[in-house]
Request: fold
Amino acid sequence: MDAKVTLSFDQEVIKSAKAFAEKNNISLSRLTEFLYRQLISKDYQSIESLPISDWVNAVAEGQAEYYTKPRKISKSDYYERK
Reply:
């Protein structure tokens, strides 16, 4: 079951992450979930011990396994309604 969470990031980070996610046909939520799954999959004791480059390589080379849900409404329709 999915749960919602509110996070705050630098605007440039969000912009770049959204572009990356869209380019890879994944939602920003699923990309974030993937990164968190990588983070919690091992018993890291500190931020310094995280293998950040492993995350990047896994995502960049398509090793990530994820499932997308069909959109209920297209992006263009969503923005037109606002």
The helical segments are 11-23, 28-40, 52-60, 75-81. The first helix runs from residue 11 to 23. The chain has a mean pLDDT of 77. The two ends are 28 Å apart (CA to CA).
